[in-house]
Amino acid sequence: MELLATIVIGCIGNEPRYQRALYERYYGYALKIVFRYIYRYDRAVDVSNDGFVKLFGNFSRFHCQEPEHLEKILMGWIRKIMVNTAIDALRKQEMMPEIGGIPEHIWEEADPGQSAEQRLFHKELIVQIKELPPSYRVVFNMYVIDGFSHQEIASQLGITTGTSKSNLAKARAHLQKKMNNDLQESDICSN
C-alpha cells in the first residue's frame, strides 16, 4: 500500500516514472472496462490510452480521505474515467457496434487474483453482453456492471430515464433467453 501511495503522489506531481508505474499496474484493468463497451481490440486499446491521458491530466483532482482504502478508491476513479471515455468514443461513432476479440493474455493481466473459473465466467459474460444490440449493451454495462443510476445513464447518453429502464429490461430479457438456450443445448449435448 505504501508503494501505491508513492505512485499516486508521483502522479499528482506529474512525474512520468510514476505515471508509467500506474499505467503498467492498471492497464489490464482499464482495458477490461473499456472492452465491455468497445469490442474491437485495437480500438479498445486506443480508448484505454485516451482514458489514461485524461486520468493523468486530471490527477490533481484525485483525493483519498481514507488511505487504507486507497486502491479501492483509485480503481473506482479509474473505472469512472474509462467508462466515460468509452461512452464518448461510442457517441462520436454514433453508437456503432464494434466487433473483434480480445487476446487471451489480457484476461490474466487484468486481474491476476481471479481464479481460472472466475476468469472463464467473466469471459462468457462478456461474450453474451457483446451480442446485445448497442443501446441495450451500453445501458446494461453502465447500470449492472458499473453501478450508474438510470438518471446518470440518461444524462450521459442523452436519452430519457424511461428509455434507460426499458433498454435494461430488454437487455436482461435477451441475456436470460440466451442463457436458457445455452443451458438447453448443453443438456441435449450431455445426453
TrEMBL record:
Protein name (database record): Sigma-70 family RNA polymerase sigma factor
Domain called RNA polymerase sigma-70 region: residue spans: 22-93
Single annotated GO MF: sigma factor activity
Pfam families in alphabetical order: Sigma70_r2, Sigma70_r4_2
Family affiliation: Belongs to the sigma-70 factor family. ECF subfamily.
CDD domains: Sigma70_r4
Family annotation (PANTHER family): RNA POLYMERASE ECF-TYPE SIGMA FACTO, RNA POLYMERASE SIGMA-70 FACTOR ECF SUBFAMILY
Organism for this UniProt entry: Filimonas effusa
Ribonucleoprotein in keyword set: no
Family annotation (Gene3D superfamilies): 1.10.1740.10, Winged helix-like DNA-binding domain superfamily/Winged helix DNA-binding domain (1.10.10.10)
